Amino acid sequence: MESLLSLPWFDFTISGVVIGSIYALMAVGLALIFGVANLINFAHGSVFTVGSYIGWTCAVALGLPLWATVLVVAAAGGIVGALIELLAIRPLNHQSRIAPLLATIGVGLILDQIVHIIFGANPRALPVSLPNLRFSIGSGTIGAIDITIFVTGVISALALYLFLFHSKLGMAVRATAQDGDAARQMGVGINAINMTVFGIAGALGAIAGLLVGIYYNSIDPNASFEIMLKGMVAIVIGGMSNVPGAIGGGLILGLIESYGIALFGASYRDLFAFAVLLLMLLLRPNGLFARAHAREAEPMTGTFVTRAKPVRIPAWALVAGAVLIALVPALGQPYLTQVMTNALLYALAAMSLTLVAGTLGLISIGHAALLAVGAYASALLTMAGLPVALGLVLAAAITAVLGAALTYPAFRLRGHYVAIGTLAIGEIVALVILNWTSLTHGSMGLYGIPPLELFGIPLFSTNASYWFVLALVIVFALLQMRLLSSHLGRTWRAIREDTIAAETYGVASNYYKGLAFGFAGFVAGISGAVSAHQFSYINYDTFNLLTSVLILTIVILGGLGNVTGAIVAAIIVAGLPEVFRTLAEYRMLFYGMALLLLIRFRPQGLMGSD
Amino acid sequence: MATEGALLSATGITRRFGGITAVDGVDLHVREGEFLSVIGPNGAGKTTLFNLISGQDRMDAGRVTLEGRDITNLTPHRIAENGIARTFQHGRVFGNLTVMDNVLIGCHTRLRAARSRVPVLAPVIEILRALIRPAPVRAEDAAMRAEARDIIATFGDRLTPRIDQPTYSLSYANRRRVEIARALALHPRILILDEPTAGMNESETAEMQQIIGDLKAQGRTILLIEHKLNMVMQLSDRIMAMDNGKVIAEGTPAQVRNDPRVIEAYLGHSSIGGTAPAAKSLTEGAQ
Amino acid sequence: MTILSLTRRSFAAMTLAGTVAALSGAAFGQTSGEPVLIGVSGPLTGPQAQYGAQWKQGFDLALDKINAEGGINGRPLQYVFQDSQNDPRQSIAIAQKFISDPKIVVEVGDFSSTASMAASPLYQRGRLVQFGFTNSHPDFTKTGDYMWSNTVPQTQEQPLMADFATKTLGLKRLAVLHLNTDWGTTAKNLFVDAAKANGAEVVATEGYLPDEKDFRATLTRVRAANPDGIILESYYADGALIVRQLRDLGIDLPVVATGSVYSPDFLSLAGDAAEGVYTTVYFTPNSPRPEVREFVEGFEKKFGQEPNSFNAMAYDTINTLAAVMRQYGTTREDIKSGLGQISGFSSVIFPDVSFDPETRRVSGPQMTGLVVRDGAFTLYEQ
């Protein structure tokens, strides 16, 4: 105990407040947008990045003074924010609620990629001369920029608070947030309001990018997602649409991380952030600052799934398609065969996700965690001497059990909260793999995973492993379709359509959610395990957040809940980058555009949701 | 009202939201085969009371028993397993499911394929049964479908021709019918109907009243919330009137319709939407 | 078709090289005939894209020189860069492409261990040499005899760095901050072993995630352990963030960073805080060796900036492979056996490039101690 008390807690508090102000600055914009558009803006981190590079252009390349730089950055950020609303969000007004969220992911990809192409991937310095004031506090110092960040956060929250509660436009904004349709009937111009809010949030996000860039003297085109996630945790702590609460949430997150590092070390930082996120969602979904006994929101009867109209493909066409796919190796192009193997492994993962996201209606952004569990389980078992075939089956079973158990906390969440909760669960799994060194070898990863073989028959040739994976896809697709036509398919869809009504008719929804995640975990576990034997080396980052987003994109492209759709879309998505390969740097840009256009013009996916 | 012999007994039911007591110490008893209606102006706490009995909401105080078994604050699916089926005020069919599948969900509590008693392995067995579908599972499925078809047929040619259509494609009135069919498929000990004719025109209302009358004639125990007082007066064995979360009158239709507190409650809320026609029909019913 | 997958910049560079060669005529000999192709698998997009860009600078400069000197016995040397995004799924597909393309005689890359080692079994079975030059994972060359690497092994680099910290600078209580990746963890372990063997005490080790930006809390924790020197197993961008925040916290201890921070970008990112930071490098543009002078001058002329160690390693890799091809032939097997035999070739990093046929790695880099003085890396003299 004495050693705990002797830690420099005051210094840790200061460190927490400094980083917490940065999170708070991010969170204010996110909270504002959530409050009005009921949307987590995944592109907010990219606006932050755009702001930092516009700041660099003004301050370093053009040599403008700081005040002019701030003005230009705010104006540019405002324009970018308003354009996001106009081009990506507004056209999706009447689509399923997940559509705008995915559109912001697409916009984020595009913005990041544009910055990447213009400025390159190297971090850049952003030396801006501020008054060289440093104040000693504790055993360290804080400088003018730290105070500027903190004050900017507080002032913008205060200004927004005044704007929302004491101006006419602000009243309209709040009315829109409470009931968009009613506000529209009262003559409030919702489009103008939304655009204003995205503009304000964009300006704030861009200024945050500039200030944080100055603070670290470093700007980096890859910072977007990480900083957005921290802002998101902050608004969950503060109450999703509570603007002053966002400041508190940011500071609290900063302090939790700082104290966590004090006690356990730097490697655990993000683990704390995501654990806090998950706990908040479960225990205080309305945020720390919500009134204790606020009335529970009316149960949501709507669903993410639009009217199901799956494209029915005749059986002969499916068989013909399967035969054609099986003949790919006959083309004699191992590269193509390998790309198709990858596509089919994605197809397995997407079939798994389409069951829970589509059939069951729980949109998960953490599905890569199931792949990772399967991969590590099979790798560790076979490296300990088990035959590969047995390893695959056991890994799938372990993933089925863990998949249901790990996602259990998310079962009681609804709507966007499921997406955030599963994202947190996915990150937590990756960080546990990283930190559980005695089992997983931590950051060293697992090397020397035995190649694929079944009962002594080696399957590591390109064609053999291709046919093996294809067989897995066909078998599990048939099994999944059979489940969907049974009472389980009916029950899962009923839970998706209206969980309350399903419960009222005797459906134990958590049990059936667990069953779905169990089957989905089995399939995802197989996909991860086969990947592990193919790669022979895996580490905690092999199946990361980007993998999760990619799988979700495949599922939406194919049509939520649609098994054949998932397979077709996996082949397209895994093949698309190959088509764009000649475009090198522009590949991800095209990819983001494709995602955006798809959500806009074919939200039910290529094959229709089911 | 004596508690003995009651099929469903609710005593001292209380639910508070923040500072407001939505349901305040309500007692409710239903005998086997009885038709009990609950009336009252909007905001009287009727739906909240039903939500508490059928488990969608948790009560702050009170106790509910069904045939003497305590079902207080059980989860909704446990209450369904005990034999209480309900419909919802605004209609909650599963839009992307067909009429048949909606009704089959009503059979869920009786589905043996979903009722493995083997500890730990029950989930695996349920999935395997769904995949392999041995003869007993197929037979059960066929029986359930036949029964569902029969229930659907009680609505004449309203639903049968649309049996394989998703319910989002149905008219509003037909969706309410699907809800009742789904509730009947549960083989309920008590059927709770929350405003089954809300939003229906006159001919649809008359048709629904006919159906509910038939259900009553079958000897079913029914709890009804309804604003259309003509219908309430004609169908009910007994009526309970609520206002401000409390029971203000209880008795036969004749007793309740002449109770000054009931008339006052309705007239006193005349500014609230939906109450004016109700008050009008109350007076009409009294003539 | 292969030309198409080259980006515009490298294509232009090659055209330029061709022009130079044509003008200088007989003095250097003109290249003609079927080009000799090196397949490169590395990140051109995604979070590691900057390293792919730095590779290309080094490759292009090396090709200018090689092709101006007559290529590989008269045939032009070229490379095909396939973007893997540092993703193992893509690197194994690229491996299939290279293995099945008979024109590719040797493969270079990928960047990270995850992406590289996933492809290794394929290259091994396809009997195509996989030549890694940023693959410090100790197991990289263990997959089979077709995996070769001229990465300076950390087993050699870290003990020299530990000697510098403990013997040259005389530090006794060390705090080690390291990237929590296979590279950073390996480096930390080897450094800690060597430092302890030298009699120093390691009072704190902290691993941090690659995308970490805020180190105040971590450094507060480090200071509480009361060290007399800070060791950084970092890349330049995170290294710069750490030294800035160290100075903000008023920690004035000596800092010894691994050679990865040796980059002009480290100086601009860290600003004044870089002053006094020590590093040990196997490549410095200040070196008087003729191979280094030629590289640095050529690089500054072509790109208008000072090269960093990734540029140098990329440049060395192409030159080493060219030397092997010139001496031992251009078939896949020639290159594999040639790598085992080459000696006496002097590169920018290794005064004498020779591979241990058992470990298939190069040994004997020269390490130089540097310190930042007046905003520039300068040779450290006691």
From TrEMBL, chain A:
Answer whether the UniProt record assigns the keyword tRNA processing to this protein.
no
Membrane topology is: Multi-pass membrane protein
Q: Which CDD domains match?
A: TM_PBP1_LivH_like, TM_PBP1_LivM_like
The entry's localization annotation reads: Cell membrane
Keyword check for Iron, yes or no: no
Sorted keywords for this record are: Cell membrane, Membrane, Transmembrane, Transmembrane helix
Full protein name: ABC transporter permease
From TrEMBL, chain B:
Q: Which residues form a coiled coil?
A: none
Please provide, in alphabetical order, the Gene Ontology terms of the cellular component aspect for this entry. Answer: plasma membrane
Task: Tell me the InterPro entries matching this sequence.
Answer: AAA+_ATPase, ABC_AA/LPS_Transport, ABC_transporter-like_ATP-bd, BCA_ABC_TP_C, P-loop_NTPase
Residues annotated as transmembrane: none
Q: Name one GO biological process term.
A: D-alanine transmembrane transport
Give an example GO molecular function.
L-valine transmembrane transporter activity
Q: Give start and end of each ABC transporter domain.
A: 8-269
- Key words, A-Z: ATP-binding, Nucleotide-binding, Transport
Pfam assignment, any one: ABC_tran
Q: Which Gene3D superfamilies would you find in this protein's record?
A: P-loop containing nucleotide triphosphate hydrolases
Kindly provide the name given to this protein in its UniProt entry.
Answer: ABC transporter ATP-binding protein
Automatic annotation (TrEMBL), chain C:
Q: Which residues form the signal peptide?
A: 1-29
Gene Ontology biological process: amino acid transport
UniProt keyword Transport present: yes
A Pfam family annotated for this chain is Peripla_BP_6
Give the highest taxon in the source lineage: Bacteria
CDD domains, A to Z: PBP1_ABC_HAAT-like
Which InterPro entries does the entry mention?
BCAA_transport, Leu-bd, Leu_Ile_Val-bd, Peripla_BP_I
Leucine-binding protein domain boundaries:
36-365
Keywords for this entry?
Amino-acid transport, Signal, Transport
**Family assignment?**
Belongs to the leucine-binding protein family.
Tell me the protein's name.
ABC transporter substrate-binding protein
| Organism listed in the record | Paenirhodobacter populi
